[in-house]
Every structure is written in C-alpha cells, then in structure tokens.
Amino acid sequence: MAMTKEPLLGKTLTELKEAARQLGMPAFTGGQIARWLYQQHVTSIDEMTNLSKTNRQLLAEHYTIGCMPPVDAQRSKDGTVKYLFPTADGKQVETVYIPDNDRATLCVSSQVGCKMNCLFCQTGKQGYEGSLTAADILNQIYSLPERDTLTNIVYMGQGEPMDNLDQVLRSTEILTAPYGYAWSPKRITVSSVGIRNKLRRFLDESDCHVAISLHAPNHELRAYLMPAERGMGIEEVTDLLRQYDFSHQRRLSFEYIVFAGVNDTTAHAKEIVRLLHGLDCRINLIRFHKIPGVDLEGVDDAKMEAFRDYLTHHGIFTTIRASRGQDIYAACGLLSTSKKIASIRNEE
C-alpha cells in the first residue's frame, strides 16, 4: 500500500523544524522550508534549491507541498470571482475573491458545509461534510491566482470558524507569524455565531478582528433564525465581549442581515442599542439574498438606510455592506458546493 504523504503547507515553524530533525536534517532546514513555502510559494519540493539534492529527495519521499489549484472559477459582472478549491480528502469548498479599488478581500471557508443550519444560509442547507485542515484553509490563499493582490482575509465563507478552531488558529498563526506571511492581524477578520468556550479561546489566543453574526437582538428571534443561539445566547456573547478591549487596534463588528417584517423595525434597532451598550464596535447591515425554500424577504434601500441612520444616531457606527457577486451566487449566505460538485462530476 502506498504511503500517504503529509502536506508541508499548514505546518508551523516548530513543526517544520521537527520534521527536518526526524529526517536527520539540521533544525535550521525547517526555517528554510518555511521561507520556501510561505514567502516563495513553491509548488514542488524540488524548487527548494538551497536544500541539498539528497535532502530534497528525502523530504519528497515523506512530504508533499500540499497546494492544489482551483478546479473551477466563476466571474461576476462586478469583478468578484468565486473559486472552487479541492481539499486533501477529496471534497471541495468555495472561496470568494472581492476586488474593490485599492483593496482586495478574500473570503475563505473553514468547513465543507456547516453544522449551524441558520435559516437564511444556503451553506447550512448543504449540511456538514467535514472540517478543513490548516493546509486546506491556507491553500485557498496559497493557490489563489490573485494572491499577490490581497489586502484582507475574512473567515466568512463556508462553515463556522469556531467549530474548527484548532485549524483556524493554526492558519492565522502562519498568516501573521514572521516565519509565515507576516501579515498584520488587522488584515484578518474571523466570524462566529458565538460558541461557548471556543469564542473565549479565540479572543485569548488570537489578535485578529472578530465579527459576530448577530441578525437578531433578542433570544427568541435569534433562536428562530439561528439554532446556535440555544447553545450560546447573544446576551452571553456580548457579556463575554465586554471583557476584552476593542478600543485600539483590534476591531469588533456585528453582522446583521435585514429581513422584511422580521428584524427591521425601530423596536429591533432599539434592542440592538441596548444589547451593544458599552461595546466599542460597529455594525455591518447586509442585504438578504433569497434562497430556495425559505420564507424570508429582504428590504428596500430606504428601509436599510433608515435602520442604519437610527443606529448611527444612537452612537453605533453602522454601514450597509455592498452586495458583491450575487449573479454567481457568491454573496453572503449563498455559498454551497453540493450542486457545483455534482455538475463537475457530470461533466467529467
């Protein structure tokens, strides 16, 4: 039986040094490998030319780079590109590249499907198919054709990042470490519905921005829209967040999809002001994109603007997020690989 080779992508500097040591190489070889991976983005071990040929051959016997190019791309009329990336275990995930003047944001996935099953989200309808490894997460960046243009990364694609926290933290360490991509944590935002113990651990172990999926200002309504509310309620989430300082470099934001007749009234806005009192934060209002089988509707621009203005006038910095890539089902809440995988297999 052929031995499955481990990917080097996704390994920390400590792990790369240990891998080198176990193969009888000096520990500093691990640092050389890290530079080839995270700074040079090599696609084969043979490209690591400051390693001896013997060491390269030895490394290649046990490891592979772990990078895999996207297998499909869809381009929106607004410039957004949705990529379909393979994973090491034979699944696929969607990743969205969003150029915007001098900014370019990549929306990465952390799981295939999602367990959270939010009423308004197409990914939740796909169900949960597995969590990504750090290599799978980083490959969405590593193998992105527009990689060198990126200014920001948001963990807002498929999956709940806190439900795959170990691998998410490993990936953000590599993105921000001097041996890795050396990005500022200010360029990375990780989203969450709020999961007990996991959210606290993320706040303690990472300096990246955090975005909370709010969508309703009280327990009853949020539980209707988001089953995860029953696991960690929004009051508990905000109580936890008050224990951390978001007044300096680290930013706290709340995502709020506005649904007609559900969470769009002045009474809801008042509840938001009460809920977030004392938190240094901002709110991003998001337009709802209709998905099959869900009896929810979005609101018009006038209602969005009125909701924004109320919150702003009551001391909460609020923006309306531009909807991008809706024509290719790349907008918020629309990512799902189930039909895409089937269509690609049919073509094959």
Radius of gyration: 21 Å
Tally of helical segments: 12
Helix percentage: 25-40%
List how many beta strands DSSP finds: 14
pLDDT < 50 stretches:
339-348
Helix-strand topology string: EHHHEEEEEEHEHEHEHEHHEHEHEH
Strand-residue fraction?
15-25%
From the helix content, strand content and strand pairing, which structural class follows?
alpha/beta
Oligomer: single chain
- The shape, in one word, is elongated
Distance between the termini: 27 Å
What summary fits the major beta sheet? 10 strands, mixed
The order of strands across the largest sheet is 3-4-5-6-9-10-11-12-13-14
Q: Mean pLDDT score, rounded?
A: 92
Protein model, in words:
With 348 residues, the protein is an alpha/beta fold. Helix content is 32%, strand content 19%. The protein has twelve helices and 14 strands. The strands form three sheets. A ten-stranded mixed sheet has the order 3-4-5-6-9-10-11-12-13-14. A two-stranded parallel ribbon has the order 1-2. Strands 7-8 form a two-stranded antiparallel sheet. 42% of the residues are buried. The C terminus is likely disordered.
What attributes does this structure have?
two-stranded parallel sheet; alpha/beta; elongated; 348 residues; single chain; disordered C terminus
Summarize this entry quickly.
The protein is built from 12 helices and 14 strands. With 348 residues, the protein is of the alpha/beta class.
What layout of secondary structure does this protein have?
Elements: E1 6-7, H1 13-22, H2 28-38, H3 53-62, E2 63-64, E3 72-75, E4 81-86, E5 92-100, E6 103-107, E7 111-113, H4 122-126, E8 128-131, H5 134-142, E9 152-155, H6 165-176, E10 188-192, H7 198-205, E11 209-213, H8 219-225, H9 234-241, E12 252-258, H10 266-275, E13 282-287, H11 301-313, E14 317-320, H12 338-347
Parallel strand pairs: 1-2, 6-9, 9-10, 10-11, 11-12, 12-13, 13-14
Antiparallel strand pairs: 3-4, 4-5, 5-6, 7-8
